[in-house]
Amino acid sequence: MIDIVRASSNDDDDAAFAEGAITLWSNLLALMGTHLMETGTPRQDVLDMLTMLHETNEETIRSARARAIAGRHLMSVYRVLGEA
Question: Which of 13, 28, 41, 74 could connect to 36 by a Cys-Cys bridge, CB 3.0–4.6 Å?
Fold first, then answer.
């Protein structure tokens, strides 16, 4: 018999890990994008890379929740770099 409390706890742990990884990933993207622009890469090229990454995520991330979280984080990075 499946222990519902343990299964729920594992799902929560997995979700927390995924959200933490996505947050770390988006922070790294922001740093990389900023560095690219500071070293001469045109802003539009950096934004195009982020758009391509978003499209790839939409096609490859299986979890709807993780896909939505990644999309929100990526959009935040896009907005910040677009205004910088």
Answer: 41
Cβ within 8 Å of residue 22, ≥6 positions away = 66, 69, 70, 73
Q: Domain segments of the chain: what residues?
A: 19-83
Distance between CA atoms of 44 and 57, rounded to whole angstroms?
Answer: 20
For residue 79, which of 40, 59, 51 has the smallest C-alpha distance? Answer: 51
What pTM does this model have? 0.76
DSSP 10-65: HHHHHHHHHHHHHHHHHHHHHHHHHHHHHTT--HHHHHHHHHHHHHHHHHH---HH
Residue 1 has pLDDT above 90, yes or no: no
